[in-house]
Amino acid sequence: MPLYCSLPTSRAVDRLKACAGTRSFFWSTNARSSHLAGTAPYHDSYILLHTHQHPSQYPPKSKSPLWRQLTLEARNWGGIVNFSWSSTQSVHPGYSGVGEDGGEEHYYATAFSVDRAPLYIPEVSLANLAQVAGQLREHTQTAQLASEVEDNSADKASEVEAKVHLYVCTHGSRDCRCGDTGGDVAKTLHEEISKRDLWDRVSLGEVAHVGGHK
Fold first, then answer.
1. Closest CA to 109 of 88, 124, 126
2. CA gap 66, 81 in Å, rounded
3. Distance between CA 135 and CA 139 in Å, rounded?
4. FRET partner for 57 with CA separation of 20 to 30 A, picked from 8, 115, 174, 175?
5. 84 Cβ partners below 8 Å, 6+ apart?
6. pLDDT digits (tens, 9 = 90+) for 48-96
7. DSSP-assigned beta bridge partners for residue 113
8. Angle between the N-to-C axes of helices 183-195 and 10-19, in degrees from 0 to 180, rounded to the nearest 10
9. What is each CA distance from 144 to 111, 150, 178, in whole angstroms?
10. Residues near 197 by Cβ (< 8 Å), separated by ≥ 6?
């Protein structure tokens, strides 16, 4: 369950603690804000390309050919693509940056969709992009089909990961508010999760810009 935060979140952590261990869901401050100007588009799938670099080191706008191509593909099934960083997330050994130096790109990726456990992909590159796009489309469309059918079975509940995945935009070179306020939010969340001993139930990461800048 990715949650994109831009506000002080002591109450958000309380909410996460209450949600962890229950039936998971996909929620975002941007996901259903299609009528708000200057925000990220509505999406049913959120795809994160894992980086070694912290978002504070990302360029203002990505020039990554892989990100651009995957973004075009993902639009066909209501997905958006972003870069993420976490001290605990898996990264591809062949990673060479976010496509700024013209080098070949390799990423480990995680995809989130409604009522499905996250999809973990050990390698995304331009060479296997068509195959990966097919996996991502199936992951999203299967989730969409399942949401149209009322099903309270134990099998459906078992498909959804109970752990909460929390992401904060800290992309300061794109929007200074994300670098300042976002960094403070991420730090506060880290402290609260540690204080409440929730690391087995909450995952915290940081991402590139998701929209809403001025």
1. 124
2. 10
3. 6
4. 8
5. 48, 49, 50, 51, 110, 167, 205, 206, 207, 208
6. 999 999 999 999 988 899 999 999 999 999 999 999 999 989 999 988 7
7. 45
8. 50
9. 14, 12, 31
10. none
